[in-house]
Specification:
- The structure holds 2 protein chains of 2 kinds.
- Helix content of chain A is 68%, strand content 3%.
- By secondary structure, chain A is an all-alpha fold.
- Chain A folds into 2 domains: 263 residues, no CATH class; 119 residues, no CATH class.
- A two-stranded antiparallel ribbon of chain A has the order 1-2. A two-stranded antiparallel ribbon of chain A has the order 3-4.
- In chain A, helix 4 crosses helix 5.
- The longest helix of chain A is centred in the middle third of the chain and has 34 residues.
- Chain A is elongated, with a radius of gyration of 25 Å.
- In chain A, 44% of the residues are buried.
- By secondary structure, chain B is α/β, with parallel strands linked by helices.
- Chain B folds into 2 domains: 217 residues, 3-Layer(aba) Sandwich (Rossmann fold), CATH 3.40.50.300; 51 residues, no CATH class.
- Chain B is 32% helix and 29% strand.
- Chain B has 11 helices and 14 strands.
- A 6-stranded mixed sheet of chain B has the order 6-7-8-3-9-10, with helices on both faces. A 4-stranded antiparallel sheet of chain B has the order 2-1-4-5. In chain B, strands 12-13-11-14 form a 4-stranded antiparallel sheet.
- In chain B, helix 4 crosses helix 5 and helix 5 crosses helix 6.
- The radius of gyration of chain B is 21 Å and the shape is globular.
- Classes of the chains: A mainly alpha, B alpha/beta.
- Chains A and B meet through helix 1, helix 10 and helix 16 of A and strand 6 and helix 4 of B.
């Protein structure tokens, strides 16, 4: 039964057209990911055209000159090198210098500057003044700043303690390895997820719409298992196709992109990108977290659209819902977050995970303090699962008279 | 083996599609006749447990069909009036899918599929996409799918809609073959579909049964005779207003009319043997049509 349900799904012309377009989008995203990595060679020329494909690996090779523990000595060497250049060229060093030296340590220098201040704009402005600071005690300054963050964002003793514990897990000194490919791919994975939630929601809804669209519902519901196993198989088909499409899509995107730009830096701490994030994870874990959140978002999208279609017998309404759940809420959520913390729990959080990882959103119920991202992940995974019996109930309880009334 | 409905009504808003109908059916072919909008399809969907009656109950061997659920649907084969299918599946895939939701094991389904496609003359089209079939061929697949589970109750709603005359004859013969040991309820507004194969005729009008019995009983109960008379062309309208007229045939020197009347409509009128179509004309006030309806 499931085999034919899947066959019905994949043989549909709409499915074929949408999946072909989706594949095309994935290829475009791969191109964008590869194209977003910039590399300037030692002659000061930025790689362009087809040679751009080598940018990721060449950049990583350059940056990996600094791999290992970022000791104060290493940071001093970098900071002084940059400071000298800035002085030599009065703040406007040529592309040749960028290609020869700056490019390889830019990320480290910015991280070092951020360790002195949580204000990322000031950190950017202060990059050439890192050498003037007390680099020998850079980790001391960083630890103090983390403590201040814990005090600032921990509004209760429990929250403050929780934040201190989280920050306490950051390994000091930080171990560095070039991670640009993971950073780039986290951004492009989010773009992929933004599209996949719509595509998957639409396709999954079609599983529950096709009987009505093709006027095949009477044969379906009068069959022995038309109100039981057949409906369960439809739900299973929805979940399986969601899983296949989502993971196949992100798999293709990841394989092609990482294959071209390289995968150096899986174990590089996320703190190099976001020093004050209390999610103590690696760059690779951050990417997997993004992918898993995207999968939960896709499952939720599929569950919601399947439910609405099972209820309304048309996918017209169902296609709008994922757009509202994710895309509209992204825009509404940001101003809304100024007014209420509820915006921290809306489904769009799942598809902009990188933004959430940077912000110290913590909540407390009684003495239990919890972080936003795991909470939202669990919440919407549960919602996706809870909706399944409701889909079953709505679809299997079909009454043709109600449908006739609805049509008229 | 008894399918019984007792005081069954179905109301849509203020309108009764089926109004307080009671009847009992056992094995054999039952022809449900009525004009468009008589309530045939609503009755059929209730018998197939896809529409719940507003009042009354439908039972199979004394058990409520809605409570029987799967056990009742296991006995059921249904060809709806608007038979829809999955256009991108091949004929055999479509049949195998329906077999699977009917709970037939794949090996048995394959064997049954072969038999049924042979029976409806579609063996060589088994790999053709459903969307590439003609209307008549799709209808034949519809009949085959209804037969997949060898149903005890076969409900066919306007089964000959879209079939050409030769396919209609073939279909009628097929139903006759299938009728043994099962209950076949055949709804139509085309009298010739049921005239020779239905053992019991049910006439339905405005949601009610107003005749149930055999074809002979129906004809015998007609309170009019059937006459054939030849009139001048300019008199046709006059006769049509005065009598129910079945056939109008232009012949040399005038027009031949088939008229229902207690008395001879003209001096040259010749009494004819009444047929089911005449009864339909008499009771429904119109000729058996060929259009499709959904109520």
């Amino acid at each position: 039964m499931l085999k034919f349900e899947m066959k019905k799904f994949f043989l549909k012309m709409t499915t074929k057209v949408i999946l072909t377009a989706f594949l095309l989008v994935i290829v475009i995203l791969c191109f964008m990911a590869v194209d977003s990595v910039h590399y300037t060679d030692t002659d000061g020329n930025e790689l362009t055209g087809i040679s751009r494909a080598a940018a990721g690996r060449r950049l990583a090779a350059d940056e990996n000159k600094w791999k290992g523990e970022l000791t104060p000595e290493k940071i001093t060497e970098i900071a002084e090198s940059y400071h000298e250049l800035m002085q030599q060229y009065q703040g406007d060093y040529p592309a040749v210098e960028y290609g020869r030296t700056v490019q390889s340590y830019w990320e480290i220098l910015y991280f070092a500057s951020e360790m002195f201040t949580p204000d990322y704009i000031r950190a950017l402005e202060d990059m050439d003044r890192v050498a003037e600071k007390d680099i020998a005690h850079i980790y001391g300054a960083y630890t103090d700043n983390l403590k201040n963050m814990a005090q600032e964002y921990g509004t209760t003793p429990e929250q403050e303690k929780f934040l201190e514990e989280q920050y306490g897990q950051i390994q000091i000194p930080v171990t560095y390895k070039a991670f640009d490919s993971w950073d780039t791919m986290a951004t492009h994975a989010e773009m992929y997820i933004l599209i996949s939630v719509i595509v998957i929601g639409f396709l999954a809804a079609g599983i529950f719409d096709e009987e009505f669209r093709n006027h095949a519902e009477l044969v379906f519901f009068t069959a022995k298992y038309g109100r039981s196993k057949a409906v369960i198989n439809k739900i299973a088909a929805g979940v399986i196709t969601t899983t296949i499409i989502y993971w196949a899509g992100i798999g293709i995107l990841s394989l092609i992109s990482f294959g071209i730009i390289g995968w150096s830096g899986f174990n590089t701490p996320y703190q190099i990108t976001a020093p004050y994030s209390f999610y103590v994870i690696t760059q690779g874990q951050r990417y997997f977290l993004t992918m898993v959140c995207g999968y939960i978002a896709s499952l939720l999208s599929a569950s919601v659209t399947m439910f609405i279609t099972a209820k309304m017998h048309t996918l017209k309404a169902a296609v709008v819902i994922p757009f509202f759940m994710y895309h509209v809420l992204i825009f509404i959520g940001r101003p809304l977050s100024e007014v209420t913390s509820l915006s921290c729990f809306t489904p769009n959080v799942l598809i902009e995970i990188d933004r959430q990882l940077r912000h110290p959103h913590i909540f407390q119920i009684g003495n239990v303090v919890f972080r936003q991202v795991p909470f939202v992940m669990v919440l919407y995974a549960i919602v996706s699962i809870i909706l399944l019996p409701f889909i079953f109930r709505s679809y299997s309880g079909y009454d043709s008279a109600k449908n006739l009334r609805r049509k008229s | 083996m008894e399918l019984r409905f007792k005081n069954v009504s179905k109301k849509y808003g203020e309108v009764f599609a089926v109004n307080d109908v009671s009847y009992s059916m056992e094995t054999g072919v039952y022809g449900l006749l009525g004009v468009n909008g008589a309530g045939k399809t609503t009755l059929m969907t209730m018998l197939c447990a896809v529409t719940r009656p507003t009042t009354g109950e439908i039972t199979w061997d004394g058990n409520d069909i809605f409570k029987l659920g799967e056990r009742y649907r296991d006995l059921l084969g249904y060809l709806p009036q608007n038979f829809g299918f999955y256009p991108d599946l091949s004929v055999s895939d479509y049949m195998m899918y329906i077999a699977s939701i009917k709970g037939i094991r794949p090996a048995a389904a394959k064997k049954r599929l072969k038999e049924l496609l042979e029976m409806v003359g579609l063996s060589k089209y088994r790999d053709r996409k459903m969307k590439a079939l003609s209307g008549g061929m799709a209808r034949r697949v519809g009949i085959a799918q209804a037969m997949l589970n060898d149903p005890k109750i076969l409900v066919l709603d306007e089964p000959t809609a879209g079939l050409d005359p030769s396919e209609r004859i073939r279909f009628r013969n097929l139903i006759s073959e299938l009728a043994a040991d099962r209950l076949v309820l055949l709804s139509t507004h085309i009298v010739s579909d049921v005239e020779f194969i239905a053992e019991q005729i049910i006439l339905m009008k405005a949601g009610k049964f107003f005749f149930t019995g055999t074809s002979d009983e129906l004809i015998a109960g007609m309170e009019a005779d059937v006459w054939n008379c030849k009139v001048f062309g300019n008199k046709v309208n006059e006769y049509m207003q005065k009598y129910p007229v079945g056939n109008v045939k232009h012949v040399s020197g005038g027009v031949e009319l088939r008229i229902l009347s207690k008395t001879p409509p003209s001096e040259n009128a010749v009494r004819e043997v009444p047929a089911l179509e005449d009864a339909f004309l008499l009771y429904f006030g119109e000729k058996a049509g060929d259009e499709d309806a959904e109520i």
